[in-house]
């Protein structure tokens, strides 16, 4: 048998369980993200989206379960082995998370300077090229992150995420806090950059316009469980009451009922 | 029963915190000798901690030395011991006041700044971002700060503090109290022994280590937004000051207890 089933998922989560004290945040999550695919995880606040992402990135350690990247187990990796996996990753944080003690170009070239020991002049050239890629001019390179608007910070964060040409790029609420036009600009940049780099993308968001723009596949997480996974085009007719309530942003539906019961 | 449970919880949480701090400190020390190294980050910290602390350390030492000279002169005159002023000033400043006051001032300036900066980096996900860029935040942020403070305290700040402190006493003694400059300096040099300088620099290194350790530890584990960063900063300064005073006694006991 050949075809998609033979392809090793770029990211594979199996039975991922995470809790903080008695609060179960991830309850045996299973999810596969195939190479070159853009997977978007949707879900309400506190549903476990960010924790899933942080577990994959190695920033949080799950209580049990498996996280495989390119078929290799990553749970419990430390030191050099963890670093090898991290090199495959790029990440755009919700608040951009730029280093405010460094100028913009050093933020973009941070990985090149600190780890790949690229010379400062060469690193600056690469940073300026990446900034151009996200629609920012060279005049921005020497500014401090505090001098940039929210949208520009997100673009710099995106430039930093793609600077080392990662195999997998994570996006944490990429459009939160932006006006609709800037949000659309960021969404388009994400699509273009992911395509350019040839990366696999995993995004978490609750912004449906982002989902429609950047997703190939969508997974919905609710109370620590993946309750639906499917193609983006099927989301409007998926027949899942939770998903339908979420994408329509309706106050009526099972999600609210569950909250009231709690 | 409840009372015992409360005591148990307090003891348990204290031991937990002490254990976590010990692991943090040993990790920081082990990273000093294991690559990768970040010389640029180290240099930046050495300049920030050493060079930029000089004005406040110098001013503190100058006024402390001057006030010490006045106090000793006035106190000594009660039993005709004014002539002991140069020797008491030099021993008091070099053994005790120079390193301790410098330590407390640097704790206020550097420990607070480290805790606030690292705490803000923690709550704005900058530390997580660093980890996703394949850079160990501990090696890049913590180790250079601890190494820079431990080096700059003895090699720059306390040497300056001791020198300016003694000079402050000299200034007041020669301009206001009628001492002759030449004999004052020769008495000072006669009474100053190598062990005094070694003890002073040892204290400085120990204080520098604790100042940076407390600033980094509390900042690195900040939680809960702006309020959490504020709490971390306060805890960093208070714990650094307490450790300075405690270790000052221990080092003094090691060097000078007969």
List its salient traits.
heterodimer, A: 262 residues, alpha/beta, six-stranded mixed sheet, four-stranded antiparallel sheet, 37% helix, B: 258 residues, mainly alpha, 0% strand
- The helix/strand order of chain A is EEEHEEHEHHHHEHEHEEHH
Succession of helices and strands of chain B: HHHHHHHHH
Coarse shape of chain A = globular
Look at the structure and give the CATH class of the largest domain in chain A. Answer: Alpha Beta
In the CATH classification, which architecture of the largest domain in chain A applies? 3-Layer(aba) Sandwich
How is the quaternary structure best described? heterodimer
- Overall mean confidence score, pLDDT of chain B: 94
Number of helices of chain B: 9
Distance between the termini of chain B: 47 Å
Average pLDDT of chain A works out at 89
Approximate strand percentage of chain A = 15-25%
Let me know the largest β-sheet of chain A.
6 strands, mixed
Number of strands of chain A: 10
- Biggest protein-protein interface? A-B, 25 and 17 residues
- Given as residue ranges, the uncertain stretches of chain B (5+ residues, pLDDT < 50) are none
What are the segments of chain A in which pLDDT stays under 50 over at least 5 consecutive residues?
Answer: none
Spatial ordering of strands, largest sheet of chain A? 6-7-8-3-9-10
**Bulk shape of chain B:** elongated
Q: Could you name the CATH topology of the largest domain in chain A?
A: Rossmann fold
Summarize it:
The complex is a heterodimer of chains A (262) and B (258). Chain A is of the alpha/beta class. Helix content of chain A is 37%, strand content 24%.
Strand and helix layout:
The complex is a heterodimer of chains A (262) and B (258).
Chain A: E1 11-20, E2 23-33, E3 38-42, H1 49-57, E4 64-69, E5 72-73, H2 79-86, E6 89-92, H3 104-108, H4 110-114, H5 120-133, H6 150-163, E7 168-172, H7 180-197, E8 200-205, H8 208-214, E9 217-222, E10 225-231, H9 241-248, H10 254-261
Parallel strand pairs in A: 3-8, 3-9, 6-7, 7-8
Antiparallel strand pairs in A: 1-2, 1-4, 4-5, 9-10
Chain B: H1 2-33, H2 39-49, H3 54-76, H4 85-123, H5 126-132, H6 137-175, H7 181-191, H8 194-220, H9 225-256
Helix pairs in contact in B: 1-6, 2-6, 3-4, 3-6, 4-6, 4-7, 4-8, 4-9, 6-8, 8-9
């Amino acid at each position: 048998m050949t075809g998609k089933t033979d392809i090793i998922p770029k990211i594979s989560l199996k039975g991922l369980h995470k809790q903080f004290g008695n609060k179960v945040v991830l309850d045996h999550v299973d999810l596969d993200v195939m190479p070159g695919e853009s997977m978007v995880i949707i879900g309400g606040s506190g549903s476990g989206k960010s924790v899933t992402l942080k577990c994959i990135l190695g920033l949080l350690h799950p209580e049990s379960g498996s996280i495989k990247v390119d078929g290799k187990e990553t749970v419990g990796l430390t030191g050099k082995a963890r670093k090898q996996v991290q090199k495959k990753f790029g990440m755009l944080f919700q608040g951009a998370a730029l280093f405010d003690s460094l100028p913009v170009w050093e933020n973009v070239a941070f990985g090149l300077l600190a780890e790949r020991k690229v010379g400062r002049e060469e690193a600056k050239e690469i940073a300026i090229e990446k900034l151009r890629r996200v629609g920012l001019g060279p005049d921005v390179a020497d500014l401090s992150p505090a001098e940039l608007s929210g949208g520009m910070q997100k673009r710099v964060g995106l430039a930093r995420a793609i600077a080392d040409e990662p195999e997998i790029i994570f996006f944490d609420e990429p459009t939160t806090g932006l006006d609709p036009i800037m949000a659309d600009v960021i969404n388009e940049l994400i699509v273009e950059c992911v395509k350019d780099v040839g990366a696999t993308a995993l995004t978490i968001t609750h912004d449906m316009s982002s989902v429609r723009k950047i997703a190939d596949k969508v997974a919905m997480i609710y109370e620590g469980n993946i309750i639906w996974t499917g193609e983006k085009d099927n989301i409007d007719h998926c027949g899942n009451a939770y998903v339908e309530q979420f994408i329509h942003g309706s106050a009526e539906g099972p999600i609210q009922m569950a909250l009231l019961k709690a | 029963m409840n009372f015992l449970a409360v005591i148990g919880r307090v003891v348990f949480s204290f031991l937990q915190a002490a254990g976590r701090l010990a692991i943090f400190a040993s990790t920081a020390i082990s990273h000093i000798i294991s690559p990768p190294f970040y010389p640029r980050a180290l240099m930046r910290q050495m300049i920030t901690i050493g060079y930029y602390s000089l004005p406040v350390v110098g001013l503190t030492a100058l006024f402390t030395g001057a006030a010490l000279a006045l106090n000793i002169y006035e106190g000594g005159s009660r039993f005709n011991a004014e002539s002991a002023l140069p020797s008491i000033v030099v021993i008091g400043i070099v053994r005790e006041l120079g390193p301790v006051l410098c330590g407390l001032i640097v704790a206020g300036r550097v420990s607070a700044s480290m805790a606030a900066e690292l705490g803000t980096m923690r709550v704005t996900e900058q530390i997580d971002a660093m980890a996703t860029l394949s850079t160990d935040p501990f090696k890049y942020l913590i180790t250079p700060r601890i190494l820079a403070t431990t080096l700059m305290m003895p090699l720059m700040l306390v040497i300056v503090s001791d020198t300016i402190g003694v000079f402050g006493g000299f200034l007041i003694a020669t301009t206001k109290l009628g001492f002759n400059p030449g004999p004052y300096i020769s008495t000072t040099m006669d009474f100053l022994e190598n062990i005094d300088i070694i003890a002073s620099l040892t204290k400085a290194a120990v204080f520098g280590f604790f100042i940076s350790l407390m600033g980094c530890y509390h900042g690195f584990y900040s939680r809960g937004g702006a309020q959490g960063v504020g709490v971390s900063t306060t805890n960093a300064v208070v714990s650094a000051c307490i450790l300075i005073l405690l270790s000052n006694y221990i080092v003094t006991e090691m060097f000078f207890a007969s």
